[in-house]
Write a structure and sequence with these properties.
Largest sheet: 7 strands, mixed
Radius of gyration: 18 Å
CATH superfamily of the largest domain: Nucleotide-binding domain of ferredoxin-NADP reductase (FNR) module
Number of strands: 15
CATH class of the largest domain: Alpha Beta
Number of domains: 2
Order of helices and strands: EEEEEHEHEHEHEEEHEEEHEH
CATH architecture of the largest domain: 3-Layer(aba) Sandwich
Distance between the termini: 30 Å
CATH topology of the largest domain: Rossmann fold
Number of helices: 7
Helix content: 10-25%
Bound molecules: FE2/S2 (inorganic) cluster
Strand order of the largest sheet: 10-9-8-7-11-12-15
Shape: globular
């Protein structure tokens, strides 16, 4: 059953225009530009979003910005948002700290197609802050590991200083539940791992042709990852791309996210690649 307001897959979203209060239970800088907020709903309601969905985060007097959930709904008591400081609204949100309140509208949009991913081999390819929305899927798979087959995860960052979720990375490196590979574009004194663009990670491990692939990262990354997937013979209908960077209002009203007949905010932000591959503007 879809939401009546915007036809997203969220059946609980009774009023998408009404922000709801969330209390910050933890706030710390994750990198020089990203702040990691852990929140809980002020009315103590449990989490009711799907991996890949997003909220519009706001402060009175400043406006609002779309932010993807960076944690899984399988973690029921709190949820994570990572906010990169890029402008007035994100700058104001960055000033918030533990105990402060954030206003959130949502959850919004269509997330990852869990019904199509369950029971399959999975590859997640995340570049830069693309790890934030995909972390909601990664945590989901790790929490319900028996529901999925082989799980490969590729993560690329510009440098070690820009890597996010350092505790997660440490766990994934030693976990038997995920075949994790990482790379940085630029090496540094203490970096001992792979150096190079994210497509170099395809040489590290075999990826079977029946794998379901999820891609989220900077625009340039999609093109080169999709070339690698074509070389592997992975059908385009088994590839999902998260395009949430294009959104503004989040509810199909402003047209900011429109790509031909698609609205990223309500038809996505997660799309089956075969449905949008002809839309040149999408990447
Ligand atoms: S973000 Fe406004 S129409 Fe999609």
């Amino acid at each position: 059953m879809a939401c009546e307001n915007c036809n997203c897959s969220n059946m609980y979203n009774e009023n998408i225009f009404m922000p709801k209060e969330a209390v910050i239970v933890r706030a710390e800088m994750a990198t020089a530009t990203e702040k990691h907020f852990t929140l809980k709903w002020a009315d103590d309601s449990p989490n009711y979003f799907e991996p890949g969905q997003f909220v519009e985060a706001s402060l009175f007097g400043y406006g609002e910005i779309p932010i993807g959930f960076a944690s899984s709904p399988t973690r029921t008591k709190t949820f994570d948002l990572i906010i990169r400081v890029v402008g007035r609204v994100s700058g104001a949100l960055h000033k918030l700290d533990k105990g402060d309140t954030m206003l959130l509208r949502g959850p919004l949009g269509k997330g990852f197609p869990m019904d199509k991913l369950r029971g399959q081999n999975i590859l997640v390819v995340a570049g830069g802050i693309g790890l934030c929305p995909t972390r909601s899927l990664i945590q989901y798979i790790m929490d319900r590991r028996e529901e999925f087959k082989q799980f490969n995860l590729f993560y690329g960052a510009r440098s070690a200083d820009e890597q996010l979720f350092l505790d997660d990375l440490a766990n994934w490196r030693k976990s038997d539940d995920v075949n994790y590979h990482e790379t940085v574009d630029r090496t540094s004194e203490n970096w001992r791992g792979n150096v190079g663009v994210i497509t170099t990670l395809f040489q590290k491990t075999p990826i079977s042709q029946d794998t379901r692939v999820i891609i989220c990262g900077p625009p340039i990354m999609y093109k080169f990852v999709l070339i690698e997937l074509d070389k592997l013979g992975i059908p385009h209908e088994n590839v999902y791309v998260d395009l949430e960077r294009r959104m503004k209002c989040g509810i199909g009203k402003c047209g900011h996210c429109q790509i031909n007949d698609k609205y990223v905010c309500t038809d996505g932000p997660v799309f089956q690649y075969s449905q949008i591959e002809k839309l040149e503007e999408a990447f």
